[in-house]
Design brief:
Helix content is about 40%, strand content about 25%. The protein has a five-stranded parallel β-sheet, sandwiched between helices. α2 links the parallel β2 and β3. The longest helix is centred in the middle third of the chain and has 19 residues. The chain is globular and about 50 Å long. The relative contact order is 0.22.
Length: about 140
């Protein structure tokens, strides 16, 4: 089972499209995936979390339906917390064999000064990480 971090972004949608292309191949190796969306659990502006959780669950339901239509077993979950630690924690519970991530290019100044989710996951994960560069 592969873990697919998803957040509704263009790079996350690209990751799902890449998985769908891979699964469509005759010699596919992926049979199941665990798609999770991590929402920040810090309430900074008094904005209720419940609508965000419901929106994430609805988006994951759509992704799940797309992947199930390709004969994949799919589990989805919305998690609360910091992205990297929650993904690493999530990778321990089901039988995860790899984590697939997609990363979009930022401007070079930001790339040098701001740590990215993908880079931190590559550094901290003890699971194999399948890195897919984002291409428009």
């Amino acid at each position: 089972m592969s873990l697919l971090p998803y957040d509704g972004s263009e790079t996350a949608k690209y990751l799902i499209e890449q998985v769908k292309q891979h699964v469509s191949q005759p010699n596919r190796t992926l049979e199941a995936c665990y798609v999770c969306w991590v929402l920040d659990d810090v309430d900074r502006r008094g904005i209720p979390r419940e609508p965000k959780i419901q929106a994430a669950e609805a988006a994951l339901a759509t992704v799940k339906a797309e992947l199930i239509s390709l004969n994949l077993r799919v589990e989805t979950e919305v998690l609360l917390g910091a992205a990297v630690p929650e993904i690493l924690k999530a990778s321990l519970e089901p039988d995860i064999s790899a984590i697939a991530v997609c990363h979009g290019a930022k401007n070079q100044f930001l790339k040098m000064s701001v740590p990215s989710f993908t880079v931190e996951l590559l550094r901290q994960s003890w699971h194999p990480v399948i890195y897919l560069p984002f291409r428009k």
